[in-house]
DNA sequence: TACGGATGTGTGAACGTGCACACAGTAGGA
DNA sequence: TCCTACTGTGTGCACGTTCACACATCCGTA
């Protein structure tokens, strides 16, 4: 009696009894099959009378399908702050799953406690698959998914641990190379980078692309590395670069938020953009159009990434085995005013 | 054969057989009860051997408890853009639920299609309760929750439809009054407001508080209303106000994002802040410290709001009936440089 | 000796579904 | 006339779990 039972709800039995039919017929009304018009009418009347709603838990148990897919956001705290794209990725995934009549459920993992509980949740039959955002290689969630062979898709970077899990992302190296080349071809010569999150693939790859594009022009002294993809880091990073090389005339910021911070630091220092210094960002987030001047940047197709990840799951649920190589989406350059 | 069955997983039966025990004993190992040391050891060995994970769907069916609580975000598209607090609210709720060993699952409702599917999901026994963010009065989700008498809590504004559902929020009227009074007491005389979202309670209440605080100083001409709580709206709203009243010396922006936009418009117009014009915002979001000058604003305790909503659910799950009046959290003024 | 309580274990039923199967009636063709 | 096909309906079982109950053993005490 300590735990009050939730109020009793109508079941197939109840509406079968009310309609004077058997459970089987009710089931056929719900799931298709031969049912006479009168029987259907009687049953539908009973259903709306008693306010019947099918019990998903029972259905999932029997069918071994829940029609739900998890969207697992690891370290969301930093994600929400650093990456304005996470919301768009979620909405993209939701839209795609929605079309296939699947429910997306987002789970956030902040603590070790969360990790364990989410692992239990994923293994428990409440979801048919999982989209995992920004996992680190070592993350225990990956092991669980791998052991369970739960249909999964990774967003952002490949799960080194299990090569059979597909992923979707962008070509960070190529995109960074392309936007850096834009700085070069517009005549910049002393080009620096504010590199962030060098403990993640995205951070490492953007730096690699930068170095790649500059070739002999590359100067180790002109790379300032900051911990996060955020505004504050941008301010700090830019001040740092200005101190090291006052003659700097081009900057590649590893994210739009960082670029926004860099603009602020440049304004402080009395440099004009793009006159004295050309600045480019990465993400094409809301930051890009908010800045003064608006940012030239790399467009991240966040919505498409989400929907692509969803497709990877749906395909696995249909029994297809997507090629494990992973999928890279195009990232067009967006030319605005900052470089 | 069109739909491949997910791979067969170990059940209590399997591990009972492997350990030479009965299902009952296995259940007792999992849920507590009298079990001898040897039996426990044998069963635990079998469990790790076979990689056993309990099936939540079956447990939920039998127990009528899923240990999961939904976090329903209505119109998340505008939320993610407008309200930087939604993430913090989520994390606050998750932390509180996590402590009670409940899984939070976020559901996103964008389309009519989503509404229906989420309603089904909520009624289906996959969750024990629901936290609903920013519902409008007419939202069909409210009806579903009400009909089901699913334990629920609303965030942000009271569900007019069903007064038995508790809510948690802030005193928008009082907070707006307080911050407006700050403008008055610091000597501003021609004070305007950029009011947003006048189709929501939050928008209406903030305007009411503003009017309240000004009393005879209030001038209808000095209110510019914009659709959303975002940066662009702030720029537009401020330009509008400057045109109507060039002598304006104080502005209450309905959100920090709007305030940031207003600062931009003021800079364009060559006004200094706080010298010529004092500007105050609302939310104490990341915008507040990013701006130049940093914003004087109203602190929204987003994390606490989330955790408070979670508590309201947990309390209902324990069988208590929280007073339906709702709960308003304190919103301290944060004095920075913009006014 | 007999009894009550504590400890340990097995068994059957139920949670609410969906599906395979069985059955009944009708119609059409060989 | 019989066999088959199609439509419509009812019944039993299984999904994997928990819980109530029955049973079994051991101990201390009346």
UniProtKB/TrEMBL annotation, chains A, B:
Pfam families referenced in this protein's UniProt entry, alphabetically: LacI (PF00356), Peripla_BP_3 (PF13377)
SMART domains, sorted: HTH_LACI
CDD domains given in the database record: HTH_LacI, PBP1_LacI_sugar_binding-like
Sorted UniProt keywords: DNA-binding, Transcription, Transcription regulation
Domain (HTH lacI-type) ranges: 10-63
GO MF term set: DNA-binding transcription factor activity; transcription cis-regulatory region binding
The protein, known as: DNA-binding transcriptional regulator, LacI/PurR family
């Amino acid at each position: 009696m300590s735990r009050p039972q939730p109020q009793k709800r109508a079941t197939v039995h109840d509406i079968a009894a009310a309609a004077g039919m058997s459970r089987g017929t009710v089931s056929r009304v719900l799931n298709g099959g031969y049912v006479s018009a009168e029987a259907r009418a009687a049953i539908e009347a009973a259903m709306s009378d008693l306010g019947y709603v099918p019990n998903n838990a029972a259905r999932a148990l029997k069918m071994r399908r829940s029609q739900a897919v998890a969207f697992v956001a690891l370290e969301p705290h930093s994600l929400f702050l650093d990456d304005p794209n996470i919301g768009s990725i979620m909405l993209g995934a939701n839209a795609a799953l929605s079309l296939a009549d699947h429910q997306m459920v987002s789970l956030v993992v902040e603590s070790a406690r969360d990790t364990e509980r989410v692992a239990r949740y994923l293994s428990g039959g409440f979801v048919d698959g999982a989209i995992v955002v920004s996992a680190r290689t070592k993350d225990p969630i990956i092991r669980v998914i791998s052991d369970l062979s739960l249909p999964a898709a990774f967003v952002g970077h490949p799960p080194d641990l299990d090569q059979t899990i597909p992923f979707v992302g962008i070509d960070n190296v190529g995109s960074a190379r392309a936007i850096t080349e834009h700085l070069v071809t517009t005549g910049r010569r002393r080009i620096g980078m504010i590199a962030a999150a060098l403990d993640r693939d995205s951070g490492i790859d953007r730096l690699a692309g930068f170095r790649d594009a500059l070739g002999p022009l590359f100067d180790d002294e002109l790379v300032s590395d900051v911990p996060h993809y955020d505004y504050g880091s941008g301010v700090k990073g830019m001040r740092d670069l200005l101190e090291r090389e006052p003659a700097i005339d081009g900057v590649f910021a590893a994210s739009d938020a960082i670029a926004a911070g860099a603009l602020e630091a440049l304004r402080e220092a009395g440099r004009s953009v793009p006159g004295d210094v050309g600045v480019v960002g990465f993400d094409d987030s809301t930051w890009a159009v908010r800045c003064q001047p608006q940012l030239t940047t790399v467009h991240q197709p966040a919505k498409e990434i989400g929907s692509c990840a969803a497709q990877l799951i749906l395909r696995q649920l249909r029994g297809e085995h997507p090629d494990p190589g992973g999928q890279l989406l195009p990232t067009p350059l967006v030319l605005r005013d900052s470089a």
